[in-house]
Amino acid sequence: MAVGTKELTPVELDTFEDERLLDELKKAKEELFNLRFQSATGQLESHGRLRAVKRDIARIYTVIRERELGIRATPAPVEAPAKAEKKTKKAKATASDEDAAAEAAETKEA
């Protein structure tokens, strides 16, 4: 996702979790740093980009602060579907050995 675009609207930022907001903030700050260097060396092509990135940074800070104050609701964490772990032959053998040991222990107790 490019920073400084229409994708970083407040409505879009509301759906981001705190960690993702901090990642976006970090990316925006890095881009601003690079744009400032380009400006200092005379290589900057779009001066409007500086303004857009600064506004994105301010927008992200605003959302973070509003969440701290309880003005904005933090989105509920979305749980990704658990991936089935692929078992190797060694892992399968170990698992079957553990199952057999557990069954033997249960029969001894009974």
Automatic annotation (TrEMBL):
Q: Family assignment?
A: Belongs to the universal ribosomal protein uL29 family.
The entry lists its GO molecular-function terms as: structural constituent of ribosome
Identify the NCBIfam families for this entry.
L29
SUPFAM superfamilies noted in UniProt: Ribosomal protein L29 (L29p) (SSF46561)
> Which keywords accompany this UniProt record?
Ribonucleoprotein, Ribosomal protein
Q: Which organism is it from?
A: Agromyces albus
Q: Which residues form the signal peptide?
A: none
GO BP terms, alphabetized: translation
Q: What is this protein called?
A: Large ribosomal subunit protein uL29
- What's the domain of life for this entry? Bacteria
Renumbered to this chain, region (Disordered) spans 77-110
Q: Name one GO cellular component term.
A: cytosolic large ribosomal subunit
